[in-house]
Specification:
The structure is a single chain. This protein is an alpha/beta fold. It is built from 21 helices and nine strands. A nine-stranded mixed sheet has the order 4-3-5-2-6-1-7-8-9, with helices on both faces. The two termini are 13 Å apart. InterPro entries: Dynamin, Dynamin_GTPase, Dynamin_GTPase_CS, Dynamin_N, Dynamin_stalk, G_DYNAMIN_dom, GED, P-loop_NTPase. This is Phragmoplastin DRP1E. Belongs to the TRAFAC class dynamin-like GTPase superfamily. Dynamin/Fzo/YdjA family. It is found in: Cytoplasm, Cytoskeleton.
């Protein structure tokens, strides 16, 4: 295989693969990815309606295969990939959307183009940027790829939207604007070149004419005594590449189904015998145009290989990062699924502990419960009222019953202390609830921050339920513990306490301005508070060390189907990963194929 065949064939294969993935010319692919299509050199065929554009393409192919009619006939881009085969081999065509079917009847090719156009646009006269890919294999063609675009028009006809003129021009511009696009600008010779839609557009996007090939059709239809030498010799409008004149089949020939090879011979005879164009005959005609375009396309492809490889390598890196971020596909094996779930649980557990230990924000709110909320609540307890002289007398008297105390009112002290410590129950329980609330918030936050879990909404719900269930259990246990502590403190007064009472009684009683005994000192509150702190802190330690222990035990008993239900990814994410994986495969294959042919000079 020659270098030209290798390079153009390679671009053909990459273009077809790009189209399958939704990446095609016209800037309509997935904007989240770099467009490989737009980096590939192409030849865009541009011309106004009735410029002879379709006839030029049929002359290049040497087959009558394109739809004909009035108005806009080409309503979707047609990517025409020509593959030269050995002499004597059968000609056939293949569509990308019908990969298993070979067309040897080119009248059926025309019908399939019409049907496939209607499939996207309907029977209306709307246009669509989604291309049709057609490959033609024939010994009569050169290796070449052309993109036939809708014909430029100046007015909308009946049945077309009012914006059709702008819509077509926008679509065409999205192709020809690209620096890798070769513009085949087709103009009829029997009209003033200054009014040519194709030349106007080409001049706008390619003012130096480096990318533009001018084609002049209908030379045989010019008025007698006139010719197009001013244009063909570059005096009227100069391009970097020479103009090429074409003589298409006449409408009468088309109606008679004149053979395309016969039409080619007539075209050659026209230029060979023409008194006006005879000196240019070797550089005129559809055969020469095809060879010229093929050679130039191969040259442009070769020059663009470094930039194409650079884009491919950059895209591979981006896709691999995206796949790593989304996570690889979930295994089908139950053991692998269990391993995946446990790994994600450990990732969540790590983040949760970081919140508690201070590596992430949130854990400080638990300290706030101990340092601010509980002490503030204790200081608001009604000790002044409980220990007023009136209250003390009443409680002591009631405790003594019919036998007054002898030395110290032991029963009265017990009642007083038991009543005072009873006030601690409310703040203690409220502190447990406050810590529980903070821990639940940290569970929710940790789940949302665990990247691995974002793929699996069902596992997120299951994990949150299991964690919150454990926290609820810890809360109940913590409440029982702190209440038990209060009850223990209330129920047990040592003998040493009562031995010291006479000494305490000899000290003057401190009262406030309202003749009430003073409230317990901050030291006394701290003494009781420390015990509550320790009990409540145990709730946090349990959450940190054993939050998912029960979940781990239960999950390990589940069957493969149940595990699979937990790993039900968001369908949109699955689709995104599949698309990324396919693009990655395409780009890697394209890189390898380019490397295989790029060294040939």
């Amino acid at each position: 295989m020659s270098t030209m065949e290798s390079l153009i064939g390679l671009v053909n294969r990459i273009q077809r693969a790009c189209t399958v993935l939704g990446d095609y010319g016209g800037g309509t692919g997935d904007n989240a990815f770099n467009s490989l299509w737009e980096a590939l050199p192409t030849v865009a065929v541009v011309g106004g309606q009735s410029s002879g554009k379709s006839s030029v393409l049929e002359s290049i192919v040497a087959r009558d295969f394109l739809p004909r009619g009035s108005g806009i006939v080409t309503r979707r881009p047609l990517v025409l990939q020509l593959h030269k085969t050995d002499d004597g081999t059968e000609e056939y065509a293949e569509f990308l959307h019908l990969p298993q079917r070979k067309f040897t009847n080119f009248a059926m090719v025309r019908k399939e183009i019409e049907d496939e156009t209607d499939r996207i646009t309907g029977k209306s006269k709307q246009i669509s940027p989604v291309p049709i890919h057609l490959s033609i294999f024939s010994p009569k063609v050169v290796n070449l790829t052309l993109v036939d675009l809708p014909g430029l028009t100046k007015v909308a006809i009946e049945g077309q939207p009012e914006t059709i003129v702008e819509d077509i021009e926008t679509m065409v511009r999205t192709y020809v604007d690209k620096p890798n696009c070769i513009i085949l600008a087709i103009s009829p010779a029997n009209q003033d070149i200054a009014t040519s839609d194709a030349i106007k557009l080409a001049k706008d996007v390619d003012p130096t004419g480096e990318r533009t090939f001018g084609v002049l059709t209908k030379l045989d239809l010019m008025d007698k005594g006139t010719n197009a030498l001013e244009v063909l010799e570059g005096r009227s409008y100069r391009l970097q590449h020479p103009w090429v004149g074409i003589v298409n089949r006449s409408q009468a020939d088309i109606n008679k189904n004149v053979d395309m090879m016969l039409a080619r011979r007539k075209e050659r005879e026209y230029f060979d015998t023409s008194p006006d164009y005879g000196h240019l005959a070797s550089k005129m005609g559809s055969e020469y145009l095809a060879k010229l375009l093929s050679k130039n396309l191969e040259s442009v492809i070769r020059s663009r290989i470094p930039s194409i490889l650079s884009l491919i390598n950059k895209s591979i890196e981006e896709l691999e990062r995206e796949l790593d971020r989304m996570g690889r596909p979930v295994a089908i094996d139950a053991g692998a699924q269990l391993y995946t779930i446990l790994e994600m649980c450990r990732a969540f557990d790590k983040i949760f502990k970081e919140h508690l230990d201070g590596g992430r924000p949130g854990g400080d709110r638990i300290y706030g419960v101990f340092d601010n909320q509980l002490p503030a609540a204790l200081k608001k307890l009604p000790f002044d009222r409980h220990l007023s002289l009136q209250s003390v007398k009443r409680i002591v008297s009631e405790a003594d019953g019919y036998q007054p105390h002898l030395i110290a009112p032991e029963q009265g002290y017990r009642r007083l202390i038991e009543g005072a410590l009873g006030y601690f129950r409310g703040p203690a329980e409220a502190s447990v609830d406050a810590v529980h609330f903070v821990l639940k918030e940290l569970v929710r936050k940790s789940i949302s921050e665990t990247e691995e879990l974002k793929r699996f909404p069902s596992l997120q719900v299951e994990l949150a339920t299991a964690a919150n269930s454990s926290l609820e259990k810890f809360r109940e246990e913590s409440k029982k513990s702190v209440i038990r502590l209060v009850d223990m403190e209330s129920a047990y007064l040592t003998a040493d306490f009562f031995r010291k009472l006479p000494i305490e009684m000899e000290r003057p009683v401190v009262t406030n301005s309202k003749n009430q005994t003073a409230s317990p000192s901050p030291a006394t509150l701290d003494q009781y508070g420390d015990g509550h702190f320790r009990r409540i802190a145990s709730n946090v330690r349990q959450a940190k060390l054993a939050l998912l222990n029960y979940f781990y035990g239960q999950i390990s008993k589940r069957e493969g189907k149940q595990l699979g239900l937990l790993l039900d990814e968001d369908p949109a994410l699955m689709g995104r990963r599949l698309e990324c994986a396919k693009r990655l495969e395409l780009y890697k294959k394209a890189r390898d194929e380019i490397d295989a042919v790029a060294w040939v000079r």
